[in-house]
Design a protein that fits this description.
By secondary structure, this protein is an alpha/beta fold. The chain has a single domain, classed as Ribose 5-phosphate Isomerase B, Chain: A, CATH 3.40.1400.10. The chain has six helices and five strands, in the order βαβαβαβαβαα. It has a five-stranded parallel sheet, sandwiched between helices. It binds D-ribose.
Length: 149
């Protein structure tokens, strides 16, 4: 199950991603927004991030104008690693190295076709583990208020 969310700036990308998920028979929950009327991105970031953090959804996809604000908000939820991605290399690497669990994209930065391609890479690239697992664990330590050595 994939959790989807967007503000007005990312609405068109979210709709394109939704169409892709439907074509691939991938289940999703669409938390909105549902039009290009102006809204606040943190509302959608929180809904998607909560679902990913509590395991209801395996991954999340968030879109706003740049992908930045909505990823910042999502990353405030414990356990979330949301990555703003604008190209195929970063889509692959943020899965392989960062084990990103939310993909964030910007509707004023990339087009719908690119968003679908990045989504496809994000959903189909596994985490490499190994030395990267240790680095992910350190991110969690920071989240828990621990001092890294
Ligand atoms: C909304 O105008 C815009 O600020 C928002 O979509 C996003 O780009 C914020 O990071």
């Amino acid at each position: 199950m994939i959790a989807l969310g967007a503000d007005h700036g990312g609405y068109r990308l979210k709709e394109a991603v939704k169409k892709y998920l439907e074509e691939k028979n991938i289940e999703y929950i669409d938390y909105g927004c549902y039009s290009e009327e102006s809204v606040n991105y943190a509302v959608y970031a929180q809904k998607v991030a909560n679902d990913v953090a509590n395991g209801k959804c395996e991954k999340g996809i968030l879109c706003c104008g740049t992908g930045i604000g909505i990823s910042m908000a999502a990353n405030k939820v414990k356990g979330i690693r949301a990555a703003v991605v604008t190209n195929e290399f970063c889509a692959e690497m943020t899965r392989r190295h960062n084990d990103a669990n939310i993909l964030a994209m910007g509707g004023r930065v990339i087009d719908c076709e690119t968003a679908v391609k990045l989504t496809d890479i994000f959903l189909n690239t596994p985490f490499d583990g190994g030395r990267h697992a240790e680095r992910i664990a350190q991110i969690a330590q920071i989240e828990n208020g621990e001092q890294l050595q």
